[in-house]
Amino acid sequence: MTAAGEIQIELTHRGGQASAARIFSTRPQAATQVLLGKTPEQLLSTVPLLFSLCGNAQSYAALLACRDALGLDAAPEADAARECLLQLETVREHAWRILLDWPGLLGRRPDKATLAALLKLTTRFKPCLFGDGEAFKLDSRLQIDYDLLIGLLAELNQLIDQAIFNGGMRAFQAIADETQLADWLADNSALSAELLHGLYRLDWRAVGRNHIRCLPALDNLSLLAHLQTQELSAFCAAPRWQGQCHESTPLGRQQSRPLIAALQNHYGNGLLARFAAVLREVAEITLGLERFGETPFEPAAAYGGDGIGLAQVPAARGLLVHRLALRNGRVYDYRIVAPTEWNFHPAGVLAQGLTALRAVDADSLRRQAEWLIQSIDPCVPYKLILNET
Predict the structure, then answer these.
(1) Which domain does 79 fall in, by range?
(2) The CATH number of the domain where 352 resides is what?
(3) What is the pLDDT of residue 379?
(4) Buried-exposed string 43-60: b where 16+ CB fall within 10 A, e elsewhere
(5) Residue 364: what are its φ and ψ, rounded to 5°?
(6) How many separate domains does the chain show?
(7) Cα dist. 370→14, 22, 162, 269, 386 in Å?
(8) Could you report the per-residue pLDDT of 317-342, keeping only the tens digit for each?
(9) Is 377 inside a domain boundary?
(10) By Cβ atoms counted within 10 A, which residue in 33, 52, 59, 139 is the most buried?
């Protein structure tokens, strides 16, 4: 078990036919206790030390919650730059899984060299946008070096296009249906194409299909009211919305796009729609960042009043929620609902998807389960145990 905890998954089956799935999380729920009693400024300096994974998303959510609890005005230009950093982080996190974990599903070696180049590149963006590289403070100083930024975005585009799409990123983003997807796969030898080819070859396109729905957009007033009627510790550990489990993944963000909608129409929320949604999000964000500063900025959702701050931020793996309460200028209560708690809920989308697996034997079942877990993407290590009855 790491300091961030792990997820333990037990899958019961008979001859490869799954019958039950149990999910246990050892992720620490009390990490935010160290934030109690701190001033907002102290809190914003501490959050990056607590959360190395998706640190920009965590820091941005904390900043928005603090700012709104204090009744401070929004900063649209600075927030647009922070949104750029948030999207870069999403691309980096997806690429991390694609380059390190997806090759293992295909029996290939991870592409550590490309990932190292990507990590080095993404560290250069923050000082390019903010003075002293401090992006998530109440007094952050916006200072954009546009010439450098344009060059960095061009480097990112080229790296992602070649490493993940083998030069076919723009063509992939333009795909609108399964026929066009088949044409793209036929002409591409990229890792991404090989993985999607594998789903067709194995006839695993609908593997993991289940009835759990994607989390709808939540307005902050409704979410705040919901939180006020829940036992917060229980909700943060195993959230439900209106009494139902939901998933919060890239699939939910991409489900209205023509290709993903077409795949879901045929295969539900199975493997093909999930992997395709991640790839499409990588392409969409990478190409969209070329237009930084040209399109109207839509800020992340936040609500503030009476010392309460609530922020919703779209992190790489799904919706991240931060809620804090201030008393006498210091943190009295702090809560976080992370995407993993939605997606790895004991009765949630992974549990239902695993229970639906039907394989020819235990080895095939394990492989299907590994693909499904990777497609939903835990943010911490996991252990998969198969129990045969």
Answers:
(1) 7-388
(2) 1.10.645.10
(3) 80
(4) bbebbeebbebbbbbbbb
(5) -65, -35
(6) 1
(7) 18, 15, 26, 16, 11
(8) 999 999 999 999 999 999 999 999 99
(9) yes
(10) 59
